[in-house]
């Protein structure tokens, strides 16, 4: 059959008489060749969207990317991609992508093109000038050595190497206000999981779901937000696991679950508390596990008072500062000392507040306890943790759960049954959560509640157990680890606080006895300082510890917004983040930016945060007039992940490398290029300066190799610095090699090992087919490539597995070390029978039955004596704005939450307060599979935009009837902050709940939309307020109150008038909703 | 158009997919698909489903489809750069000695 | 020429290939579909199918609406007040379920589009799939009304017919069709049709045993009106619920008998005319 022969001839002479097959093939058809096979090369990469971290094959032909699809070798994704991953080619190559550097002079009406080098030069000048003008040597008599005039935001989809340079350069410049999406997304995770277990990250990995007997997905819409990861839930289901989805809405996850439990948004603490109560009152906890591996038996102080005693408060609350003095929460006879030597007393002496970021540091690091714990092995002592727990949760009865959450008692009983039947030596249950839990004014406590429950059920550290925190961005785990956060240094070392006489020794409290792995804090910090200041960092100058700028309180992104509004913060750098859509109270974000002297935006497209001065909502209402806005704006197009090399850390702490496939076009450059050359230019301009203020930036190690025409820094070199090396220049392999004497370099101690032996471990791609289910030779996870954390707990105290079915690691007596499927999260040769001698310190103080090695007492914390500033135990409070009265306690809201009183940030009256009925409905925000976070990577991508083209709201038929909403029509949703419009989807999937004698209607809002791009709409975050969890500074956007009306919203000044009219009706004044 | 029987016969004669591709004048990946019914770049779930499938490669079958793969894991210039950084840090070397 | 064998319906699968591989196709198990639409995007990306931005439809989460020249995979969403096996939806006291299904060209055994194509643009590949050769298509559009499923359409931009090719170019290098490869939950399964049919039967049995009595297969039966399809489905309700015809028939099915009748009528007419003519000659 030769396709060059005339088809009719082929038809007449060949076998295909009907001319339907072989006879009619054209020559073109015969020559068909898939462009994958015909490409020049295929480059290994990782998807840039969410934190599942699906591996991608990037095909290049003639130096252009021609196709991107999944890499079947990946043990996580198995070659699959969700719609966003599948749209990566369009994201990276679409002609609409921004490729020109743009400049907006102050007061200008439009952009003008600008030469990239000129722009870089101008930005460097702005930074230098603003820094000089706003330099602060001291604050209230204490040395701070910083500038509060500059801030940066982003980026959780940037590479670890990029975040590292951002933090390094800006910190050396004295910038403290460095933040990224991790703040607004999963900062509560660091606190919640860290305080309970010792490390603030997911305790397990997605593939391990197959071993689970019961999976509870709550505060997460797994199938929609992490579709490819969800395949592992389906595998578990195929093996007989029960899948439960607890969510205000019936989502695409619910559609595949065995059981969906509708819950009122914001009431999860009550729900989980109810299960805890059920487990305790019916003695269904895993006793051996609880007794040996948790602090259940530890006895608390006599002066501890619980929320039970104080109607929702704990002992030690100071209503003036709205903070707790936490002494009374400590273990009896074991005062808390922070691992960085700032004792509570010292801290209180300085302004009476616990240092900001203390929780996160504790959460990640753990505190230090001095003394010995007193325990009651019978678990009966009235002040032992277990009894305190039982008393605390006694009021969380099934009836109360129904009243608070709207969950019918029979449904609640089902959940309790499934969980308890599937926990114990032979069975394990797993919790999966995401921002449905973190984004609350008591978000850390949501996670604490699940941690307590999983400890009681004995599920932590066991296959198919644990808590899977599903983070959202490609490298948001990395941007927390490295981090671009104001209160942390790489590896969760806290940023130092301004105190008198704060030397390195003070900071490290090297004189105090430390237990556990945090005894090596000096090694970690000194190695970091050596990485940053190289030969300039010596023992005699405290390794330049002085050069780190000091915190004096909270400097979170929300504090920065206020600082912009009051004129303190003059310059802002956005690195792949879009606060005009993605942060709470977007109007305030834009009003803040309107006060800036200058703004630098780096992104793939012209996002809302770059164009608000021209066509943002405030231009439409007339509140801002373009010619009056003096902000100088630079827009510098960014390279995509196919155009740069670097590593992403996914939600399971796995670092995966992606290689540059092609060079970026036009003015697009990587953020690595931007930070490196910005630093280079600044150093050139400051060269020769004798001002001591400039020394930290001039002495900074900043000589990375560059390559190619564009002078792109070699990312592997940055990775190597993060990994660290010894004095011979040999890359280190384990963080136990780090020293505090200045003989080692290490940019991030928890990543030490990623470049072991000079090999990029994060780039390893041994196919899943060639490994077991742990797949430890695919890429590299921290710490030390362990996949299931705390896995010592998968074995009994004597070292044998709890059961054959659930074995993971165990003590091999003959070999004299721990063995098993995973890397033991324990000292390899410490036998189960080891008991620490009197006065032991460091790791020697941990016994052979202490699986939580980062905790000072080696135990999982049911009760948190330190580390969580708003309570040692989770307690149900209503969200900041809520139409429901707290039925559990007299305190309506979290007394310790952070409120920001500001005319643009008014709160609602709640519960019984007069005016609460003006905003009678509960609003919850959420994600759609088809879009990604604040929309910069999906709303402008046609294949994604067309899947969900417009903003819409979801309401129940009852609510629609009550308010006259028409399916397919429009609705306006109003809060005290702003009002938005949305198309109406009337659906059974957004049920109204019956609780406490009334019906509570809920409104669902996807949060991706904004005025730019192809898929447009108003942003849900116009409605939210800034009210923060005091531990993590995360905003409450998962539960608020609002009113809804049919029809489109007003345009122009009428919009503000409507919002104001509502406020007046509700009687909202300055102090509304700010009560303790 | 080659049939399954044709390809399996050649496999049983000891030829690998590269040989078979040349003989039949088709891409190696296509020979694999025809022989096994499993795509060369598919994930493992299909293959694992039916044991004893003839002609199946246990791993790395995607190489039958793909062009040259790029995934370097070492760079000597970076090693040299590290050594230079360490060498230039005298206090560090002193601390190591002391 | 034997009319029965020479006309549509006969020997389609052979289509003139002396040797050919086993027939390949899709089994779409909608019971594990999460409605993510990765299939829609992966298909468009691989095949450079134009985007088709429209407004919010309000049809649950379906803004694609249906298959056509610019949508070769389409995910349907159906919200129903019905139970699904033993699932507890928890939505008040009522039954509720949300069905999701990815629709695609059926690559019928008896393909009407193929039958009516006058140019030989549509053809049967060696894998048994039906593919449009865009370099041959003249845009006549006969195929569009011929399809009993409403799959194929004409593209506005160039007037040519377009539909799913079961990624023929990928098969030629041994790659999995883009939608099947990308599907996060393996709802779309690709393979040899016989094997897929076996797998589907087993899955159906398991589902029914677990209490999902409404589960059924669609397109798997070689005795149905299109001779069975190369892309068949496991559905959780009646086909109509998904927008699929309950009893699809290849629209050219009656052609043989139509020709016979026409032939008989023509013959009768000839006989009649001849009779009249003969009668006329007598005078």
Automatic annotation (TrEMBL), chain A:
InterPro entries: Asp_de-COase-like_dom_sf, Formate_DH_Act, MoPterin_dinucl-bd_dom, Mopterin_OxRdtase, Mopterin_OxRdtase_4Fe-4S_dom. It holds the Pfam family Molybdopterin. GO terms for biological process: anaerobic respiration. Residues 40-96 form the 4Fe-4S Mo/W bis-MGD-type domain. SMART domains: Molybdop_Fe4S4 (SM00926). The keyword ATP-binding does not apply. Its cofactor is [4Fe-4S] cluster. It is found in: Cell envelope. GO terms for molecular function: 4 iron, 4 sulfur cluster binding; electron transfer activity; molybdenum ion binding; molybdopterin cofactor binding; oxidoreductase activity. CDD domains: MopB_CT_Formate-Dh-Na-like. Coiled coil: none annotated. GO terms for cellular component: cell envelope. PANTHER family: FORMATE DEHYDROGENASE-O MAJOR SUBUNIT, TUNGSTEN-CONTAINING FORMYLMETHANOFURAN DEHYDROGENASE 2 SUBUNIT B. Belongs to the prokaryotic molybdopterin-containing oxidoreductase family. This is Formate dehydrogenase major subunit. It comes from Nonomuraea pusilla.
TrEMBL record, chain B:
This is Homeodomain-like domain-containing protein. It comes from Nonomuraea pusilla. The lineage of its organism: Bacteria, Bacillati, Actinomycetota, Actinomycetes, Streptosporangiales.
From TrEMBL, chain C:
[4Fe-4S] cluster 3 binds at residues 105, 108, 113, 147. Its main location: other. SUPFAM superfamilies: 4Fe-4S ferredoxins. Residues 24-54, 96-127, 128-157 form the 4Fe-4S ferredoxin-type domain. Gene3D superfamilies: 3.30.70.20. One of its GO terms (biological process) is formate oxidation. This is Formate dehydrogenase iron-sulfur subunit. One of its GO terms (cellular component) is cell envelope. The chain crosses the membrane at residues 258-278. It is found in: Cell envelope. CDD domains: FDH-O_like (cd10560). Binds 4 [4Fe-4S] clusters per subunit. Its cofactor is [4Fe-4S] cluster. Pfam families: Fer4_11, Fer4_4. [4Fe-4S] cluster 4 binds at residues 117, 137, 140, 143. Keywords: 4Fe-4S, Iron, Iron-sulfur, Membrane, Metal-binding, Repeat, Transmembrane, Transmembrane helix. [4Fe-4S] cluster 2 binds at residues 43, 164, 167, 179. [4Fe-4S] cluster 1 binds at residues 33, 36, 39, 183. GO terms for molecular function: 4 iron, 4 sulfur cluster binding; metal ion binding. It comes from the Bacteria.
